[in-house]
Amino acid sequence: MELTAESIVFLIMSAITLGGGLLVVSARNLFHAGLYLMVALLGVAGLFVLLAAPFLAGVQVVVYIGAIAILIILAIMLTPSVTQLPAIFNRQWVLNLALAAFLFVLLVSVVSPIMGDLGVDDWGADFTEENPADVPADSIVKLGEDLVDPDKYMLPFEVASVLLMAALIGAVLLVSPGKTKTDEGDED
Amino acid sequence: MTGLLQDIGFSRDLAVLIAKAVGVIVVAVFGLLWTLLGIWLERKWAARFQDRVGPNRVGPFGLIQTVADTVKILLKEDIMNRGVDRWVFNAAPILSVLAVTLIWAVVPFSAAWIGTDLNIGVLYLLAVGSLGTVAVIMAGWGSNNKYALLAAFRAVAQLVSYEVPMVLSLLVPVLLSGSMSTQEIVRQQHIWYVFAVPLTMLIFLISSQAETGRGPFDLLEAESELVSGFHIEYSGMKFGMFYVAEFLHAFTVGVLTAILFLGGWKGPFAEDVAILGFFYLLIKSLFAYWVLVWVRMTLPRVRIDHLLDFNWKFLVPVGLANLLVVAFVWKLIPDTDQINSFGDAVVPTLALLLVNVAMFLVIGALLADRGRRERARIQARVAGTDLPVETVAGAGD
Amino acid sequence: MVPLWMYLVVAAALFSTGLFGVLSRRNAIAILMSIELMLNAVNINLVAFWRYNTPLDLSGQAFAAFVFVVAAAEVSVGLALIIGIYRKRQSVIAEDVNMLKW
């Protein structure tokens, strides 16, 4: 891989994403884990920009970082641990680590040309799109049109809004304290 | 500038990088230096609204007051109490200023000057605004102070809630101009959008006033009541950064209003002489900013539950209805995607203006009706007792 | 251009990290955060394949948008559940919620 500006930015964004991800699962202080999650999500947004999907990058920042991660952090602050946890991993963590590592190795062997280079044919996928076609300039307009096109994605779009409505009502119902006290449901 | 650097002999990638870095520095420094002048301006206006004079001792007309204040703040002791989370505590003010300075990247200063012409400019504005919310949480948590934490909760509730009507009102200029790019929105305003969709501009101003934590929505800090809310524990330059961030955000809202609704850099001869466009933008944003200072100095503070009620029960339905009606009317008017000049834009603007006036009247009628029912209810409740009921003369609406 | 398989490797690494977090962390909110990591890995995959294989057809981006929606809905309901459990049990450790009826 030649050292262009794009590959440098890709390496930086990937480092941010993976570093943030690793810190999320291993941070002792849960609030810090929430902040590292935001860092990882920011790295993913950067990767989206590299992949010529700026709209998704913007939505990622607004929805994930600006809403979901903040919600998670608020929940962290509302549910403090009564005692300081001595252990953050449960008892099977070694087995889980091995499992995750095995899955990673398996996935890498399939998607990357490593197995082909090692001489094993018929194992990895053959991704040969080194120079993909250019993204049309009005892809955002086309995305909008596709989302409301009855032949394309109008039905999932409507179902998604119903899903969000159900989640909204469900969340409010789950945290409201019931009919005996005055109504003070959460604002979310 | 890229061409210049390339001629010197840098490779193309490096030339682009250096040119962009210089652009970044210029835009950011402009924003931050403007703060010095702008804070003086705000203090003078605020003083005049309160029938006093404002800073007038340091320098001619008090112009150097901000510099003096900055020097004072820099010399203050930087206190960090025991138990603060150092990284989080220190990063919060930086993130706060960062979130505001990043907005200046998509501000079109004139037909040829813009930091970067993103084709998702408006979405970028929203994204960067959300980063400011993160800074508030970090400040509240990092202070190791339960009152700061509570204030941070309240602040986050307010900031996240008022993003919804802001999004709804931001969608209208996007709809009218057919693009999310700020430069394109300015170019398409052959007639300023304030004449077409004044209700939307009002919703945008109100929700932005709440987003910046100023004016009647300043429970975030409530200087006279809660001793600074989530930045209680900050002293010295860190507090200075929060202050700069808040002021700059307010001015940036003025600039955004000018871009989205008041025609940005458009004016006589703006396309030919670039500096004129910059000048027009400055005047328009100062006007919008003056309106915001006026509102801030006039209205009393709103309580938190009233604030959230106002958002969810009034602004969001009005914003939604506004968006739906504008989209509907825009679709009905023929040829709206080929507005290329002043003449083409007259008919759609008038149609939208009529619809907006109709919406104003409907909302006014609904509010008046609700006010009347409230008053009747209170009258009925007090009718059986001897309590004196104070009635406000006139049918207020 | 960066080859496609590099994006996929990054997504695979993120997914494995999230998987490890889901399986190993004791705090329920940390488990939710790891689920978010996994969903983001899926999104990276979707958008990378869209960019390299079918940049003219916007299905990849549309599906990534739907993943955003599902993630948001799941996080809000999940956190509501966790807060409800915290009110009853005063604990958000996943191992402590081990009786069907209290």
Characterise this structure.
The complex is a heterotrimer of chains A (188), B (397) and C (102). Helices cover 65% and strands 0% of the residues of chain A. Chain A has 188 residues and is mainly alpha-helical. The longest helix of chain A is centred in the middle third of the chain and has 25 residues, at 54-78. Chain B is mainly α and 397 residues long. Chain B folds into 2 domains: 1-75; 78-381, no CATH class. In chain B, helix 6 runs parallel beside helix 11 (304-332) and helix 8 packs antiparallel against helix 11 (304-332). Chain B is globular, with a radius of gyration of 23 Å. The termini of chain C are far apart. Chains A and C meet through helix 1, helix 2, helix 3, helix 4 and helix 6 of A and helix 1, helix 2 and helix 3 of C.
Helices and strands, with pairings:
The complex is a heterotrimer of chains A (188), B (397) and C (102).
Chain A: H1 5-26, H2 30-50, H3 54-78, H4 93-111, H5 114-117, H6 139-147, H7 154-175
Helix pairs in contact in A: 1-2, 2-3
Chain B: H1 2-8, H2 12-49, H3 65-74, H4 86-101, H5 121-142, H6 146-177, H7 182-187, H8 198-211, H9 236-260, H10 274-298, H11 304-332, H12 342-383
Helix pairs in contact in B: 1-2, 2-9, 2-10, 3-9, 4-5, 4-9, 5-6, 6-8, 6-11, 8-11, 9-10, 11-12
Chain C: H1 4-24, H2 28-53, H3 59-89
